[in-house]
Structures are given as structure tokens and as C-alpha cells.
Amino acid sequence: LPSLMASAGALKGRVPPAPETLNVRRIRPALFPSPLRGNYEESGVRFRRDSERVLIRATFDLAKGGAAQQVGFERAGPRELVAYRDGKCCAAIVTAGGLCPGLNDVVRGVTMCLWYHYGVHKIWGIRNGYGGICNQERPPIELTPKIVRDIHMMGGTILGSDRGNPPLEDMVEGLKQLGVDVLFAIGGDGTMRGAHAIFEEAQKRGASLAVIGIPKTIDNDIPWVDETFGFQTAVDIARNSLDTVHVEARAYPRCVGLVKLFGRDSGFLAASASVASNDVNVVLVPEMPFDLFGHHGVLHYIEERLNKRDHCVVVIAEGAGQDLFKESKGVDASGNKLHHDIGVALKQILLDHFKKTSKPASCKYVDPSYLVRSARANA
Length: 379
Description:
There is one protein chain. The chain contains eleven helices and 13 strands. The protein is α/β, with parallel strands linked by helices. The two termini are 25 Å apart. Strand 5, helix 3 (103-117) and strand 6 form a beta-alpha-beta unit.
């Protein structure tokens, strides 16, 4: 979790995080042999040392002393010693924020790993986000291999989700009452901030609560992470929508097919789905400012495309073009900046623009956002 938060801050500043921010804090001493040593040695388990690092930058200049300045993340993997005796540990899993393909796969994977690899047979499933920690009407459920056996065949999350956090004191006390030693928090920006706050509050109380953040984002925008879970599925589902809009646009005279995809602050999904489709003519993403009007504007290009080919497919990420709006919409319950609906706005701008020309055009608009994020993982 500290590594993730350090990465997010470093991305904004375009500089590597400080080495001390990348150390995973040890909550209690690791004194007991890992259950993997006796049960899985024949399968070739490779234990990792805390001193092992994965470099942030793969290249450096020896002449500038670059090797001595390299920083990296602690290498993930099993350790030979663990903090709890076999089975003497209670875990909890919570999913919060927006849905994403693969959430159930992660819940299942964590549960199976805890149960079979580490002998942890007390696993709480927190329902409907952090609010479920102390919600008497929706108490946590016990997760077992039987409960999670087939959940990877379903979209969404078996635990449910929600945004926002109850008072920190209530959450930490609720986890204490449940006897939780390790909390797995699966979610995005707001979920990770909540997880970090829970950890800090537990530290103030002297509680040995370990918090593990499993970052979830359909936007694939986590620094130094090649690909987030669910992203390939999102690309596949989104590509189907682009193919459909392309068919619609070709079927009508002077038609613009417009699709809005997820991408609050990044355009990975919009760009990747467009490349996969191979039928998209314009891709608008948050990272690249653009002009709508003028000789070099988007509308002029679309008009030229219609004159030549009679159709045009445009893909826009939800966070693109926000500078076209004068007023801010504030933030949501997770603390994320709320964006204006650029898809609806761009559709109206397109229609108004072509009404003023001698050659009107139509627009087929599709927003498959909920179809994408609620799908079961297929990759």
C-alpha cells in the first residue's frame, strides 16, 4: 500500500519515489516457518528475501553513478518465515468503489490461497464496501472454498460494493471485534486512501493490523504496473461496441459513430480498444488536449472524413475535453473529481455544427460503460 501511494504521487511529479517510501512496513516479527515450505517444496516454491528489489528504472548511466542511485520496490513473493502460526490468523476481504471485470476472480484467488496455502480458515467477506465493517443489517459473511468456488464465472463482486467511508474509529473497532489480523482491500483511489487511513488509525491504537491494498482500475493507469486486472476484458468488451458503432455509421449517409469509454484521467482503454477495432478514425484522451473548432480542429477533420468516406467513428474517454466546461462538478463519495458528460456534450456539438453546414450529418451515440465494467473476466 505505501508503494502504491508513493507511485501515484511520483507519477504527478515525474520523478521516482524516495527509497524509504517503498519499504513495506513490518507489523509484527516473522518467527514461524511458512506452510509453503513443507507442503509445496516439491513444486519448486521460490522464497524471496526482503532485501530483493525490482528496479523502477531498468537503465542507468554508470558514468553518472546511476547504479548507486537506483531505487526499487520490494520483490513480491512468499517468505520463508511468516508472522502467524499455521491457521492462527483471521483475514477479511473488502471490495469498494466502481465495478471492474475480475473482482470475483481476485476474491476467489485470495480466499483459496489463504485457505489452502496458508491454512487460514477464518476469512470474513465485508459486504458493500467499508460500510459493511460495522453494518448490523449487512453483517460480514464467512468465505470458504465452497462459497467462492464458482464466483469467477460471474461479473461484479459477490461481496457487493459502495463508496465512502464510515468514521475511522468505527471501522477499526469493527475489525477488532471480528478478530481481523489482515485486511485485503480491493479497489481504486478512494479505497486505497481508506485502507491507508485504517492502517494509520490501527497503528495509533497499537493494533497489529496488516492492510494489503489490491489496486483495481479499469483505466489501467497505475504507475509501474504493466496491466491491471480486468483491463484486457474491458478492452475486449469495448471493442465489440466500437465494431457495432462502425456498422451503424456505415449504414447511414454522412453518419458519425460516437462512443464514450471509461478513462477518468487516462486514455488507455479508449486507445487500446480503438487499436483492437482498427475501424476508429478519431481517439480523444485526457492526456492530449484538443481543439474542436478551427481549421486544425476535430470538427474540421470529421467533416473532411464524411466528405470522403461518408462515415466516421469517434472514441472519447470520459475525462477528455473537460476544459470545454466552465464549472466544476466537485468530487464523489470516494474523493474523485466528478467529470461532466463529455459524450452527450460532444454529440450535441456535432449535431449543432453540421446543422449550420450545407451538408447535415447524423450521429449514433453509444455509452457502453456499465456493460464493460460489469462483465465477467474473460482474459
